[in-house]
């Protein structure tokens, strides 16, 4: 990856080199051609029999004269952070003398995973292959050669001596104006690759019944399945029970029908499962078990090969997801997770596809509002649903546009969580908590920390959170 502008430092070092060895060096001309090995750059100015001596001297004085004047290109640190943010590794493969390149990395605080020096052109390919590089960023036509030799995608930035036309003629895949443009490009590139993986996975499945709650994840999965397989080989299964808010049902059906798929609305009976009602830390296990035990026979009867859930890559690394275990035990597939798609990427792709759910707030089931250890019942779920609807209406009447809102049932006391930036205004609006009390809660308080997904897990003993 091209990270630094070495021209000021090289000019300073060449000046010292010329003084020590009585050389006539055109430092501006040499610094305008940086990229090739030093011997190539000095060839017009240094006799062949003196070249090794001069190069050794250049390396010796480089640390004193070149490190301090060398600056990072704009966006260099952000580019490395973007790679790390996507779970990638950063590899620097350079023509520079490796010890001096290491000094640059240390001086500028670059966090990289591997450095190889004194490599040029196609010679970079072997190291890039060994390091598993999928993308190589450079600013010279010979960097394009290195990417091609490694079978990596060549991304070129216009921070070096080569023009966009020269880089394209050399076969680069992408030209960016500078490294500042790299993070946005990388986001799109990674998303494209993961969407392609998702499509390939779904095509290979043949047919699917999507466990469709109406939320952003399952809506995106349903749309992706229709794109990959066509509506005739896809169905949406939305389970109706006390834990699904009535306000979610019609929008979910409308969305699925807009895609042309069959919509199934079987009734699930998780309330009949003792483990669900008991509402210990593993409640979601029993809920998901009930869902899959209902949907799987439906898929079989319809001749659909798989039941797919909207589990995403973020869910897979979350500390407490017993429902994922229940679904896995029952053979459900997780195409979004398998493709590596995060919640943020699902929203970005949904927006790209113009799905109305792209910015839909998270909407966990009503049972997630009941504190662990308090028995789940239809009465409690209905009370929570009324309280949330009332609080939303009161906030809207006060001119407060809320996005995320939860009423947590703590027994006979309700804790209202709303967007953090609205908490102060809501405190000054008594009608908000009055609406929660009117729904049937004797007491109601506003959580000063604001909304956060999974806040009930904070109340679990530490070992329970990771079961």
From TrEMBL:
Keywords: Hydrolase. InterPro entries: HAD-like_sf (IPR036412), HAD_sf (IPR023214), LarE (IPR005232), Ni-pincer_cofactor_biosynth (IPR052188), PGP-like_dom2 (IPR023198), Rossmann-like_a/b/a_fold (IPR014729). GO terms for molecular function: hydrolase activity; sulfurtransferase activity. PANTHER family: EXSB FAMILY PROTEIN (PTHR43169), NAD_GMP SYNTHASE DOMAIN-CONTAINING PROTEIN (PTHR43169:SF2). This is Haloacid dehalogenase-like hydrolase. It comes from Nocardioides mesophilus.
């Amino acid at each position: 990856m091209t990270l630094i502008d070495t021209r000021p430092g090289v000019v300073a070092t060449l000046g010292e080199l010329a003084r020590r060895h009585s050389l006539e060096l055109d430092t501006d001309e040499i610094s305008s051609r940086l990229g090739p090995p030093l011997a190539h750059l000095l060839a017009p100015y240094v006799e062949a029999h003196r070249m090794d001596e001069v190069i050794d001297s250049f390396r010796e004085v480089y640390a004193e004269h070149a490190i301090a004047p060398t600056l990072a290109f704009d966006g260099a640190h952000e580019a490395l952070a973007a790679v790390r943010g996507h779970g990638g590794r950063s590899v620097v493969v350079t023509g520079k003398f490796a010890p001096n390149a290491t000094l640059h990395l240390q001086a500028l605080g670059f966090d990289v995973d591997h450095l190889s020096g004194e490599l040029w052109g196609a010679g970079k390919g072997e190291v890039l292959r060994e390091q598993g590089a999928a993308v190589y960023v450079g600013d010279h036509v010979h960097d394009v050669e290195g990417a091609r030799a490694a079978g990596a995608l060549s991304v070129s930035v216009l921070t070096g001596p080569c023009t966009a036309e020269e880089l394209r003629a050399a076969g680069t895949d992408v030209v960016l104006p500078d490294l500042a443009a790299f993070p946005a490009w990388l986001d799109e590139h990674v998303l494209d690759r993961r969407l392609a993986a998702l499509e390939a996975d779904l095509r290979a499945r043949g047919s699917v019944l999507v466990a469709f709650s109406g939320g952003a994840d399952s809506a995106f999965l349903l749309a992706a399945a229709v794109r990959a397989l066509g509506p005739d080989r896809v169905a949406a299964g939305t389970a109706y029970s006390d834990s699904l808010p009535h306000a979610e049902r019609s929008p979910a059906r409308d969305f699925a029908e807009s895609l042309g798929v069959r919509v199934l609305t079987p009734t699930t009976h998780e309330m009949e499962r003792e483990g669900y009602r008991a509402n210990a830390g593993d409640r979601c296990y029993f809920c998901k078990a009930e869902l899959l035990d209902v949907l799987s026979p439906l898929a079989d009867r319809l001749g659909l090969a798989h039941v797919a859930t909207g589990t995403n890559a973020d869910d897979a690394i979350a500390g407490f997801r017993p429902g994922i275990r229940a679904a896995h035990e029952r053979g459900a597939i997780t195409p979004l997770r398998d493709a590596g798609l995060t919640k943020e990427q699902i929203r970005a792709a949904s927006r790209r596809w113009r799905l109305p759910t792209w910015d839909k707030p998270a909407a966990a089931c009503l049972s997630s509002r009941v504190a662990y250890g308090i028995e789940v019942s239809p009465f409690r779920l209905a009370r929570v649903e009324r309280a949330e609807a009332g609080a939303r209406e009161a906030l809207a009447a006060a001119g407060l546009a809320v996005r995320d809102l939860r009423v947590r049932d703590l027994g006979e006391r309700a804790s209202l969580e709303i967007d953090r930036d609205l908490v102060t205004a809501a405190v000054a609006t008594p009608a908000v908590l009055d609406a929660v009390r009117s729904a049937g809660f004797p007491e109601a308080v506003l959580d000063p920390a604001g909304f956060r997904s999974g806040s009930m897990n904070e109340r679990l003993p530490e070992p329970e959170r990771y079961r």
